[in-house]
Amino acid sequence: MTHRSDRLIDVRALARVEGEGAMHVRVRDGAVAGVRLEIYEPPRFFEAFLRGRRHTEPPDITARICGICPVAYQMSACAAIEDACGVTVPPSLADLRRLLYCGEWIESHTLHIYLLHAPDFLGYPSALDLAKDRRDLVERGLTLKKTGNDLIEVVGGRAIHPVNVRVGGFHRVPAPADLAPLRERLRVALDQALETVRWVAGFDFPDFRHEHEMLALTEPGRYAIESGTVATTGGLGFGVREFEDHVIEEHVPHSTALHAHLAGRGRYLTGPAARYTLNHRWLSPLAREVAAEAGLGAECLNPYRSIIVRAVETVYAVEEAIRLIDCYEPPSEAAVPVPPRAGTGRGATEAPRGTLFHRYELDAAGLVTSARIVPPTSQNQAAVEDDLGRFVAGRLDLPDDRLTAECEQAIRNYDPCISCATHFLDLRVDRG
Amino acid sequence: MTGRRVVIGVGNEFRRDDGFGPEVVAELRARGDDRLAGVQLYVSDGEPSRMLDAWSGAELAIVIDVAVGIGGPGGWSELALPEVAGPQHTASGHDIGLGTTVALARVLGRLPPRVVALVAHGHDLGFGVGLSGGVAEAVRPVADRVCALLAAP
């Protein structure tokens, strides 16, 4: 097959990517003619579904968009609703939100590293096959992930689709005694997270470098998670309220999800590598140290090495959770009042996969009249398509099955959560 | 039966018939049936590590789920190991099926001695709330079957 200049490869299932969709690569006359990330599911269902709902409901409703990153949806929804209502939560509640978010970073990053991505680098078709040979590694990942799950459960009420989050704060806040057992487990988790960085740093990484502008929230003094302003590696900086002035979404024929680009600039990437590149100086000393030990420099432009960044961010999230628990004093109130008012609010936080933006318009009674959600995966689609085109162009001599497998791995570099943007993903490489 | 017993409703109530598992768990919680005393009821999205956490150490795990294309609307099937034990080809992390989770649990030594899956025959997994008619009709009989399984020696 490799001697042909036109080829057709169909891969009907892209395994180990959160959610589902389709990637279609066209090769003509020995050159890549086009790459499309195809999305089939009815778009923006949740945006329509939110209209007419009370202003208190988006955190619980949008949490159902994704089982892997419900906290991100809740946090961005709360931030946007509170912005619309002119409410700022006190630092003690903001810290508790950050603690909850750390749990999600730990569990989401660990899921991706151990069950979805590491098998690629080690030559296993799945985590199941990895577990048959290296049960210890998979158990370490599951234990680390469970610590994140349990942190979410204690602060958020349950591990999936947390029920304790509300606009203005929480329904109830944990007692210090609730958090104390977690602290001890987080100490163990820190060692596991450090071992994870050293483990993944030893993988063989294909030589690949993208040239996309990268975008993330940034917050001087600390690594941005649940708050911050927007910055890009191209020097752009703006507030969350100006997000839609700079990030333009548009329909593309092959996708029912919207594609995003920076106004007047073009495609961009968000996600862990963007966060690291823009904010690594705000990592903890230990996280910076282990990042340097793992070979990460001042920027991460090789998508394959994003697995190292996720591991470093896991170290940071574990450390940050310990710090927040150590200084935790229960807030005097579990939530501050958020009386409704007519207006528009915007919120953005750093989901494990990248910047997640929400905007809500409310009427005077507090009913949602319009909603807009810009998930990280749809922001990344154009850049992923570009990268995959360049990636395939350098590997056209590979046999179909090998090229397909490598394309799958390339897509997993971005940890796409297609279910956040929409649903259903498979991969097709059309060479003929 | 004296060991830990768990009932896990798998699904997402915002994906139509995929809400079957959570709906059965809600039905069980509302019943207050004596046979449910000491039984741990979970709702899960089916993500493998959370499934493993939920049933690790249990002697009986009853999993309530929905599947498309296995039978006519309104019906449901009861599967026991090894029928649910085979790893499947998966499309995504969200789509790692029960069989793969069972296989992973076995490799890791975290598989309950007895796993029973009660699977409704669904046909609408699109976005939206509410079960389709036939699937909704299966909620009570499946809840009845859960109670019967828990009462069995």
TrEMBL record, chain A:
Pfam families to which the protein is assigned, alphabetical: NiFeSe_Hases
Binding site for Mg(2+): 47, 373, 423
Superkingdom: Bacteria
Chain residues that bind Ni(2+): 66, 69, 417
Entry keyword RNA-binding: no
Membrane spanning stretches: none
One MF annotation (Gene Ontology) recorded for this entry: nickel cation binding
Annotated Fe cation binding sites: 69, 420
Cofactors named for this entry: Fe cation; Ni(2+)
PROSITE patterns: NI_HGENASE_L_2
Keywords annotated in UniProt: Iron, Magnesium, Metal-binding, Nickel, Oxidoreductase
Family: Belongs to the [NiFe]/[NiFeSe] hydrogenase large subunit family.
Name of protein: Coenzyme F420-reducing hydrogenase, alpha subunit
Species of provenance: Paractinoplanes atraurantiacus
Source taxonomy: Bacteria, Bacillati, Actinomycetota, Actinomycetes, Micromonosporales
From TrEMBL, chain B:
Pfam families xref list: HycI
UniProt similarity note: Belongs to the peptidase A31 family.
Protein's organism: Paractinoplanes atraurantiacus
InterPro entries: Pept_HybD-like_dom_sf, Peptidase_A31
MF term (GO), any: aspartic-type endopeptidase activity
GO biological process, one term: protein processing
Keyword Cell wall biogenesis/degradation set for record: no
Keyword Hydrolase on entry: yes
Gene3D superfamilies, alphabetized: HybD-like
Superkingdom to which the source organism belongs: Bacteria
Record key words, sorted: Aspartyl protease, Hydrolase, Protease
The protein's name in its UniProt record: Hydrogenase maturation protease
